[in-house]
Amino acid sequence: MKSFNKIIGSTIAATAVVASFAAFAHHSTTMFEHSKTLQITGVVEQMHWTNPHVAVIIKGKEAGSAEETTWLMEMTSPGNLIRAGGWSRNAVKPGDKVVVDFSPLRDGKKGGALKKLVKSDSGEVFTANIRAQEAANLE
Fold this sequence. Notes:
Keywords: Signal. The chain contains 3 helices and 6 strands; from the N terminus they run αβββαβββα. By secondary structure, the chain is an alpha+beta fold.
């Protein structure tokens, strides 16, 4: 009986540790200044279609700037983007010329939460509202 209780106790402890790591692994969207929208024009360098967040790396210029820099745009998960409509693994590819509206990072680094991406050559529009798409589904 003692060894059974040890096994149960160890299992419960291990489950608690794993659950706590999962809770810390996901961050909120407070790192972004959602009240601001900036725009960059550039070329997609990489598209990372992975969980927990899709990311697009763009080399481009901020509106009104002559300096070209590399920007990291974060979105929600692949599943949320697919459900939102229009997005797929191959929707945006390296080499695509794009115009991106985004909420900048609060710390001033070159990145943000992508709001809208327009492919310059085709005019296709893709939206990604990380706050709405990651809201709890309590219905």
